Amino acid sequence: MAKILRAAQKSGLTTSLDTAWDLKGRWMKALKPCLPFLDYFMPSEREVKMLLGYSNPVRAAKAFLGMGAKCVIIKQEEKGSFLKRRDGLEIQVPAFKAKVMDTTGAGDAFCAGFIKGLSVGWNPIRCLRLGNAAGACAVGALGATTGVKSFRQAVSLLNQ
After folding, report:
1. 69 confidence band (pLDDT: 50, 70, 90)
2. What is the pLDDT averaged over residues 12-38?
3. How far apart are CA 110 and CA 100, in angstroms?
């Protein structure tokens, strides 16, 4: 994975990684070589706890930045999201209120929303808000993708 990420960055691409739950417990062994080649690293608080042994977002973000990631975004479920960059920018954005039916896919929806915001040139706060909005849409229905209908749906939540 690190070789692929390095090649992508050398080609001028922006890289991001959302962790997946590691049932075999190889968390850092698999991840650490990738961090220097990540523009955006997006674990959840629970994943941070498994990776580092603690979940404090500021402390965790500093640790991952120290391992080479350029920007760390921690998904915090009903608390929203937290971003910290190497240049010192630190942002906490609250979650949108949502009726929760199923949390499956909410983190993936967040990542998709955040990356979509990047792709259209939005600033970090707006990207975080779009990620939170996409996550809020996802939890409103049963299943990983049923609640997320469109970019327009998530943007309408931003404007409420």
Report:
1. very high
2. 90
3. 15
Query: In angstroms, rounded to a whole number, what is the distance separating the alpha carbons of residues 88 and 23?
Result: 33
Residues shown for the chain = 160
Please say if the pLDDT value at position 2 is more than 90. yes
Average pLDDT for 56-81: 97
Cα 88 to Cα 33, 70, 71, 126, 140: the distances in Å are: 23, 11, 10, 18, 34
Distances (CA, A) of 29 to 52, 75, 107: 12, 22, 22
Of all helices (H) and strands (E), which one includes residue 71?
strand 71-75
Number of other residues whose CB lies within 10 A of the CB of residue 100: 12
Q: Mark out the alpha helices in the chain (DSSP H runs).
A: 2-10, 27-31, 45-52, 57-66, 106-119, 124-139, 151-158
pTM to 2 decimal places: 0.93
